[in-house]
Amino acid sequence: MLTDDILAVAMSYNGNDVKRINHLLKVFSFAHHIGVMEKCGTEMQTIVDISAMLHDIGIHEAERKHDSNAGNWQELEGPPVARELLKDFHLDAFVEERILFLIGHHHHYNSIDGIDFQIVIEADFLVNIFEGGMDRRSIEKIRENIFKTESGTGLLDKLYG
To answer: Low-confidence residues of the chain, pLDDT below 50?
Structure first.
């Protein structure tokens, strides 16, 4: 299956960076689940799944080139890395460009322009809240300002409510 093959490539790219591999697996899992629950069609689910797997793929290049893993550097370096990783999969041009767009904008919360983008952002927050040990007030602000899908909001409430 396409997503399984891309997941293997993403994990391989991260080498022995267990922290990054665990993060991508968790975000992918939440994104996939939210996409299914929100009844994304096949093409949209593919975009959600692959974007979630690769959303942070620019971190290693950002650290190498800019000595930082800040979001702006991830977004700058991620799309070229993802394009290279995806080249042998011969994705539909629209699907590939949308994936690259989401990778290049996944910290732009005011630019969410579709359910695919919304789902990837929500999945990333579900994981980042736990990994970052966010406090109750921060979670409430995220719920109010970021979460829009019924499925993502339900997960947020169940996990952190």
So the answer is: none
